[in-house]
Amino acid sequence: MGIQVTSGGDGLVQLGSKREATGFSVFDQGFRPFFWLAGVWAALPLGLWVGVLAGLWTFPAAWGVMMWHGHEMVFGFVPAAIAGFLLTAVPKWTNTPAVRGAWLGVLVGVWVAGRVALLAASVLAPWLVAGLDLLFLPCLAGFVAAPIVRARRSRNYGFPVLLALLVGANGLTHLWALGLASSTALLGLRMGVYVELMLVLVVGGRIVPNFTKSAFERAGRDLPLWTSVTLDRLSLGIGVAALTLDLFAPGPVAGGLCALAALLLLVRLLGWRSLSTLGDSLVSVLHAGLAFLVLGFALRAATDLGLAAPGTAPLHLFTAGGLGLMVLAVMSRAALGHTGRPLQASRGLRLAFLLVALGALTRGLLPYAGGELAARAPVIGGSLWALGYLLYVIVFTPILMRPRVDGKPG
Length: 410
Fold this sequence. Notes:
This protein is mostly helical. The chain has 13 helices and 2 strands; from the N terminus they run ββααααααααααααα. It has 2 domains: 23-183; 203-404, Up-down Bundle (Cytochrome C Oxidase, Chain A).
């Protein structure tokens, strides 16, 4: 497999990978390797962390098991899913060649190198760990930004910006690891989560109503959605402002914005007829993911306005619920559609959706009950969530590793 020069839809020369006329490779499309890696890396670090909490084993992570687990979920698992999504979507948005073959293999190798570096942080120099781990997101941003800028798709300029913010958030964790700052690690993790939530707000606002409308039409259901460009823009703007203020200046003002964001997102979901999607798992899980954002904003508002929060429980409604379900939903739908399969969730996939949702609810809400159950919430919720993603890996490994069923390339 060699490298060839091709001309994109905008007339500009781009690099691509020369593929054989016959044969198949998992590096034909970005979603194949990265959606698989995202599933594996969702289940593995969390499973190791849960085992430590349950006293089943010890795990000698140089950063400490909790910090390593948090870092790998925020800057390992989610970026892999983002890469699979953007590397597949951007070529369609911009009418340019996809990153595939050798270049895609290199990008996958950079992601893997970062994960190995964190695992081996006890024997590697901190500057080397930082360099290897921080390399992936800038590389991804370069592959994404170039076609967007060349095609002048201003509507999508925000994606490279969000990737740059993720680089900065990850950099804050490494400043702590390098001993250059004493209190930036948790800020970096939280900033990473909030930037990823902003990405969910953008992507969710675009795809969820379209997928919902299409599902109703396929089922022959005359259920028009109520949509509003003003509401879309307002909910996105308020949501981003609420997350930003809650990150850097939590308090009554941030709480008020979080409450308003929850209300606007709820109104938008009701207009999209969320309850009417229950018969289609691939669509209803998207609505469930956004519903977790509503719940997360509501509890962040309560915390900012003075309600004591049990540890990181409210944050896990955002992470395990909002991010976890939305990532799982988008990966599942995209993998089925881009491999020529019907947009139908198998029993195994529906069970995976259920386990991740139950895990997120357990981890995010059970601590508010107090007592013994609250103490066990991280283990119970984490186990359910990790099992859900493990099931996703089992279901989608043959789908992602085999050619399209319709014989088309990709």
